[in-house]
Amino acid sequence: MALDMQELGWAETPIGVISLRRRHEPGVGHDVYEVKIDDEFLMSSLFHVVETELAHLGLARAEGERLHVLVGGLGLGYTLVAALEDDRVEQVQVVEAVAAVIDWHRRDLLPDTAGLAADPRCDLHLGDFFALVADGATPRATYDAVLLDIDHSPQHVLHPSHAAFYTADGLRRMAARIVPGGVFALWSDDPPDPVFQAALAEVFVEPVAHVVTFANPLTGGESASTVYVATR
User: Fold this and answer.
1) How far is C-alpha 199 from the chain's CA centre?
2) Buried/exposed 161-173: b ≥16 CB within 10 Å, e otherwise
3) Is 21 helix (H, G, I), strand (E, B) or coil?
4) How far apart are CA 76 and CA 9, in angstroms?
5) Which region among 18-27, 89-98, 125-134 has the lowest average model confidence (pLDDT)?
6) pLDDT per residue over 151-194, tens digit each?
7) Closest by Cα among 151, 159, 134, 158 to 196
8) pLDDT in tens, 112-124
9) Residue 211: how many CB atoms within 10 A of its CB?
């Protein structure tokens, strides 16, 4: 008989112990894959609609036929999968701060993204996304689209050092990495934030906060998150 829960990997990080586990969820009748930081749930394969929509909504605003995309945060890989489904995307570079997360994908521990790391259009980089942006040291000088999914929201960050990114000054440094007419998109687990929207409007053109709803099989109702999309 299969175990109800199995830890597949873990690692010490500056923000706590990150772990990947597979767990049978009776409410849906199949296994789910979850990432935790210490005792806090970070992400689950049970809820990935908004991570997918981050790529769909962001790339829908992008123009051109040979797109270079930067993804901040690898996680369970759903944003990366959705970006690679766009035939216009020539390359996706992912910056992930935790080596173990990259290793999980290279070892194909997650069935929904198996083989992803070997895709020739996929380039996984170990690094601190926020530090690379602040220093102007991203893997490529400029991108047609930047898709970011690291913190819970602009107000609920995983590490205090991330907070400066969500100010107008921090966003200007991000904008310098995006081609004119290119796109910045951000996932947030909170409702639209007027303070962050005002900062976006100082730097980008036509920022829109999309509220994305999805079925929650654990509650039997709906949940919602936000995807911000703006053009440089």
Assistant:
1) 20
2) ebeebbbeebbeb
3) strand
4) 13
5) 18-27
6) 999 999 999 999 999 999 999 999 999 999 999 999 999 999 99
7) 151
8) 999 988 999 999 9
9) 11
**Do 99 and 177 contact (CB within 8 A), yes or no?**
no
> Residue holding tokens 């849906």?
28
Supply 25's token pair: 């969820």
- Give dist(CA 17, CA 196) in Å, integer: 29
Q: Which helix (H) or strand (E) is 83 found in, with range?
A: helix 78-84
Residue type, 166: Y
- Those residues with Cβ within 8 angstroms of residue 111's Cβ, 6 or more apart along the chain or in another chain: none
The full length of the chain comes to: 232
Q: Hey, is 45 helix, strand or coil? A: coil
Structure tokens at 144: 């047609």
- Tell me the per-residue pLDDT of 189-221, one tens digit each, with 9 for 90 and over: 999 999 999 999 999 999 999 999 988 877 778
